[in-house]
Amino acid sequence: MCESYHPQSCDTPDPTAAGFTRRRFMGHGLGLISAAATVPAFLMRAGDALAADTTMRLSSKPGVPDDRVLVVVQLSGGNDGLNTVIPFGNNLYYKNRPSLGIKEDQVLTIDGVDGVGLHPALAPIREMMDAGLAGVVQGVGYPNPNRSHFASMDIWHTANAGSENGGGQGGRGWIGSALDHLDSPTGLDCLSIGNDAPLATLGHTSRPVSFEKAQLFRWAGRDLDQAVSKTYDQVQHVPVNADHPLEDPGHDDPLAFINRTALDAQVASQRVRKAVWLKSETKWPKNGLANQLQMVAKMIRAELPTRVYYVAMGGFDTHANQANNHQRLMQQFAQSMKAFYDELEASGQRSRVVSMAFSEFGRRVRQNASGGTDHGCAGPTFVFGDHVNAGILGKHPSLDKLQSGDLIHSVDFRSLYTDLLEGWMKLDAKAALGRRFPSAGILRGAAV
Amino acid sequence: MAVNTSLSPIAENRFDLAAARHLLWRVGYAGAPAEVRELQTMGRDRAVGRLVDYGKIDDGALPTLDLDPDVLRKLTDEERQRYRQARQNGDQDVLDEQRRMNLKNRGEDRKMMGRLRQWWIERILATPRPAEERLTLLWHGHFASSHRSVRDAYLMQQQNHLFRRHANRSFADLARGIVRDPAMIKYLNNDRNFKRKPNENLARELMELFTLGVGNYTERDIKEGARALTGYTLDDNDFAFRKGQHDNEPKTILGKTGNYDGDAFVEILLKKDACAKFVALKIYDTFVADVGDVYDAVPRGPRKIIDGLAKRLYRNGYQLKPVLTELFKSQHFHDPGIVGQKIKSPTQLLAGTVRGLATPTRSKTAMASSMASMGQVLFEPPTVDGWSGGRAWINTSTLFVRQNLTTYLISGQHPAKAFRPGQTEYDPRVLLAGLEDKSADAVTDYLIDHAVGPHVSAPRRAPLHRFMTDRGDDTSNENLVALLSLITAMPEYQLC
Question: Which residue of A has its CA nearest to B191?
Fold first, then answer.
């Protein structure tokens, strides 16, 4: 475990440690390699053999589901929650949204829920709700809301609502902090699609693998030519103590550490790129979020040791001419999530994947003069998977009791994190969030 | 092999090219072969003096940056009145307008922050006083504040000036300055530290992270220290002391009782041995070896050096130059067990490659994005504890980013773009000016010696020699670009 205050004492897993655990097998394969100091071709074969061997899907601890996956979908810009989960039964909604309000006859209703329904473009998600695969928690937020994208996003990422100055504190992310406590990190525990690693995924030692395209998760110098690529591999396969082979460089040797990490990275890179090369089983819509989720579905199917995937979709900052834009965003979001779970089902992976889709804030109750909405506070958060409580969860925030024109939250977002970390991933939520939060009840009993 | 733990200087004649190179890499941001030779010719004492005592080196050619101090200005009385009235009357239009104005100013400020960050990077890449930037960055990581929370680029720049002004002078003045620094006051909420409602944030970090280290004070000392700091706040862009909010009663801090204010609190801290040791440890961890920042966890050998440095710091009233000078001449600093064993920070990797190999600087956005992916966004340390450093810099993700950055600087091959041959715009042969034997073998060894260090073992060099042999021993521009891309992708290159 990597709990020490010293970054120096945190290390890649001991490759000689006994047992093929699913999360450890990469390290093990490398143990063989560095001991034998053999050629790169073997490295590839070793990785492939292990990947193909499904008996590797063993748990490191009895009773702990080692292969559960969490997918986080960030809807950047502040999704208009009020036009996502729509309180059509309340006149105040139409009063505040004279032109933007979705007409009652268009709202998608949910069996057993009165006066509240979904945006018409969310039909694929309603289908998932009917199948018990999707839920939406209403009124999610935090105390002393901050209406700056930047600060509010920081708050969601760090799980620190910084009551002192009401702003983001920077700091470490909720996912990264939770993954800091993994018994045997693989170097591929968290994967984010995009150029920069989201703050949420940055822990004390844990950092995600992040790339926009899987092809970029490699050494770019390989493109110079074949001989360069070959020489690059050769250097790393010369033992670091080759000039004095009787002396064990030991764990403290920084060069041995970096060389080991380089070999780890090599295996991770090959596995990721090979996984993404696979063909999908189902048909996918063509949009940014769908493309990202399609990659994630392939990596899940290839059984990478990755526990958390992070994807993002932008465009939700609808200050003007919202109606059409929001319609398109809702449609892309819903179609992508549906396609993702269809693909997971087709590849037999659905039961091990829970997803959450959040936005940094909702928008003002009252529409503005440009046919749009300005930054607000509480909003709905979606959860997906076999193991979530389906349907519209909780109570819609009041439309008459507002805080400076904004909805007041009833569920703290960190309660959702608690369920996902502790209930789903069996990670230490308190260590990641700084303190305990009550469950938001998003998981079905059996999953917890 | 035991590491020499003496602070006595190395013999004059041991200050060879390798030693000069080590000095330039560890204390500055590397340099071209000609710079290494020049430093070596100066001899041990003048070479160390040139790096550490840089005040007389003219830096007038460096870019300057004037930021608008009023992007985030205080409201005028008139505006304040108008918004107060709007709040009372629930006038949403006026409130919306205020909100939009706020968001616009924040956006402006973030743009300014981008310029400030770029300015610092450019300075690091071009400065004739590299140790000044190394030390300024050291103090930025030590007295860490982040723009993510301060959210005022102008204040961040003022803080940077504070660190630069005292960088090689006196730690005592840095500590004295930091409790009056508007960015820090904002970052650690001392603007909310009032007599009737003390806020302990600054008092706590001042002891835990800035001066003494964990275990050298009690919770009670924090409470009392916070009282001493009450009323230390900011007025727009300047420090302000608000007498009315200051607790004017006696406090007991670390066993001493008196009617202390924040400045007196700092003096009490500076009188503690633990403070000198804590600062010496930080200097050691920055320049000598990745030992972390917990004194009690440091092995005996390094601890002996740290204690020696701490004594000298304390005796000289926290003057930094004497300590740095002694350290950088020392047998310990130049021991083979120390050389080539320290993990480079992202800033060192970037600046060291540009300066050490004389590469083009390439695209600004690519540089900024690499720095973010490698985990070191200047002006945004992850926590008040600064950057973790050492092994925390390296993992499966950052290692590719690091290798791709150096490859990009050398070859022009942008990691996110399709390969375009012939875009290098860089001729590594400029590095070979002093080399007589221009055979492929000699050039390969020369470039490894220069870029990584002469300590690289022969078996690890062998693949690179084979590579050049397979190319018909042709030291063309193209082949040298490939060779340098390979050398900088060696795991050894991550160390210095």
Answer: A165
